[in-house]
User: Fold these one by one.
Assistant:
Number 1:
Amino acid sequence: DGGITQSPKYLFRKEGQNVTLSCEQNLNHDAMYWYRQDPGQGLRLIYYSQIVNDFQKGDIAEGYSVSREKKESFPLTVTSAQKNPTAFYLCASNRGGTDTQYFGPGTRLTVL
Amino acid sequence: AQSVTQLGSHVSVSEGALVLLRCNYSSSVPPYLFWYVQYPNQGLQLLLKYTTGATLVKGINGFEAEFKKSETSFHLTKPSAHMSDAAEYFCAVSDLSGGYNKLIFGAGTRLAVHP
């Protein structure tokens, strides 16, 4: 089955630690996205990548970093510089342009 | 800049009743509009989308939405609610101004369905 996988589903970290969230897709999509979801605020774009080895900041990139070394993978690192990292993180992908974005199941990060 | 407003953060209906979730958008260009559904602790699933052409769009699970340019609206409806429709619903518009497809989401509407 084609789809997007995110791991882990739940993640707990101590304040001040960096943490990396995994996102893998086997849909052969060129573009991948990371969103952050907070209650009552909808989804906000953190980073996106249109092709391998290229990525751009979204609306709330401060305190986050990404890499895109393979077409299938777009990991997100939440650094200690992110002031309020506790949130639900969603990865998405599409063929690019106005093609529909398809979402993974999400990772809930809790920083203690 | 594009924006999306969903009227009503919580909507409650009886099973079998009409579902109406409201979405208004702001866009300087002809918009691409989407409705997604999210069940607890899950990702978003596409319900339907409007790109061009017919303004009444049919989606999965019996949902449909009508694009009304004059009202800048894209309200989601379902004639008869089912208990399984209880979820959070997000309206989104494509923002292509940055040279890529960024989705602008509304804050979401949580739908409750009671017996």
Number 2:
Amino acid sequence: DARVTQTPRHKVTEMGQEVTMRCQPILGHNTVFWYRQTMMQGLELLAYFRNRAPLDDSGMPKDRFSAEMPDATLATLKIQPSEPRDSAVYFCASGTRDTNTEAFFGQGTRLTVV
Amino acid sequence: SQKIEQNSEALNIQEGKTATLTCNYTNYSPAYLQWYRQDPGRGPVFLLLIRENEKEKRKERLKVTFDTTLKQSLFHITASQPADSATYLCALEGTGFQKLVFGTGTRLLVSP
């Protein structure tokens, strides 16, 4: 049963610490999205990749956030330094045109910065 | 600026009735419009996709309409059941699976 895997599921960290969230997209998917979800803002697109190349990261605070795809099986989202306002659920999703552009979401990483 | 608007208030309906959810957008020219369901503590799950040249799409008890003139999509669940209670999100996409952007979602509550 193919699915997007995100780790960790939960993370509590102190303000100023570095946070790294990982995502394993579904094998064969060439598009990966990172989203952040809060009650106030809903699901915000932070960045997305096609064939491991970043296509758009305009939704991401550039000074503290970075997203990479070291290889086709791993996408990472880093926050350094973290701030309380970064507390949210972060979702990774993957897809490909071959699946009619449906995006498959992971379970999310719930981040709490104290 | 670009906006995707869904009713932020929860929609409460009785079991068996038809639920209708609305998605309005401005300053977009999407090639596709998608609807997702999200349950608490879970990621969104894809339900239906409709293309800009399609007026209506159906899947079992679900129906989606897409009016590019009004810049609006309607999402219908017929013969609703308590198990349909969830948050429903619409998403817009440009051609070539570009930049999938979501609305804020509408929570649906179906009472027995």
